[in-house]
Amino acid sequence: MRYRVPPIIPFVLIVTLLGTITKCGPGNSDNYSTIGEDFVPETIVPVPESDSLTLRFDPDSIQQVPDPILKFIIEKYSKEYGYVDTVNIENEMRFLVEGDLVLSRQGFIDHFIFREAERQSVQVEERKIIVRVYRHKKLLLDNPASVTYAIKKSGFPSEAFYRRVKSSLEAAANEWNNASGVNFVHLEEWDGKLTDNQYPGELFFIVKYGYSDKDFVASSFFPHFKLPKDRIILINDYYMTTKYDSIGVFRHELGHAMGFLHEHLRAGVTAQCPDEPSARFFSVGDYDPTSVMHYYCRTVGFGSYELKLSPIDVAGAAALYHKPTP
Fold it and tell me: What is the pTM of this model?
């Protein structure tokens, strides 16, 4: 179920400061010189004298979060959940987190608030696949019978690039469709129509090309992301040269879109996969080093460049998304 905050209740975010606001940013503030280009100076929150800060704001006003607070959120997110980087997509700065999630400014702050609230919830397994839980509900697709998408063709550097993405994505989608009750539907008629920053209501997500020198092949989203511009699968240039299987990349990213977390996030496992910490995740069930949701961990050889669906992946997907009865 897609996460929603009741509109009549404002977000309440309580963060503990290590010092004053003026000292809580990352060591090299130049890394964040592009943050907050839409910042409204009048919204600056005075530096509190106490050791805690409570922010209250409505979901629609998140863009007004001032830069000092945003910098603190970046630092806290980096400490608790993993490194935060930035990429420029269609002239908008986005945040790259958890290895393969690219979020807008508002989406990143939403995600941070969600992760903080999520501390009281346990990541649960359904026949060993890990999914998120919030307020006792699994965060899955609202309408798995029709998960519509299109590929923004005009953004790709070449016809060959677009065609490779199209065929590989369709093949990966068919595998998930056959393994579960999810039905990914490519509305190909939209491929040639989509323009920058266009998110038609007919599409649940959009696949886009986005060049970045950051070290990622593709990025995805989780089904509870409420902003249409955060429900994208982004393809980087590395996709054409990566060692990862071209269909396997989309098996993995579509797994995120279905709500599945990285397998290597299980507590005690990521010591062998040092690129991503396991903070705030809990080990449940047996570890599956062959899961499609597992990165290839060079240090020990866990995971695979093929990113195939394992028997446990298939069983978990079928249990979470039941196939309709004929």
Answer: 0.73
Q: Give the pLDDT score at 262.
A: 83
Q: State which amino acid sits at residue 12.
A: V
**For residue 207, what are its two tokens?**
């696949």
Average pLDDT over residues 294-321: 83
**Distance between CA atoms of residues 209 and 151, nearest Å:** 9
Q: How far apart are CA 207 and CA 239, in angstroms?
A: 13
Which residues does residue 103 pair with via DSSP β-bridges, in sequence order?
A: 95
Q: In whole angstroms, how large is the CA radius of gyration of the chain?
A: 20
Distance CA 155, CA 324 (A): 36
Percent of the chain with pLDDT over 70: 67
**Residue labelled with tokens 């949701």:** 293
Domain assignments of the chain as residue spans, ordered by start: 11-120, 141-242
At the top level of CATH, which class does the domain 141-242 belong to?
Answer: alpha beta
DSSP-based three-state secondary structure for 256: helix
pLDDT at site 123: 56
What's the mean pLDDT in 293-306?
76
Evaluate whether 119 touches 125 at the Cβ level (below 8 Å): no
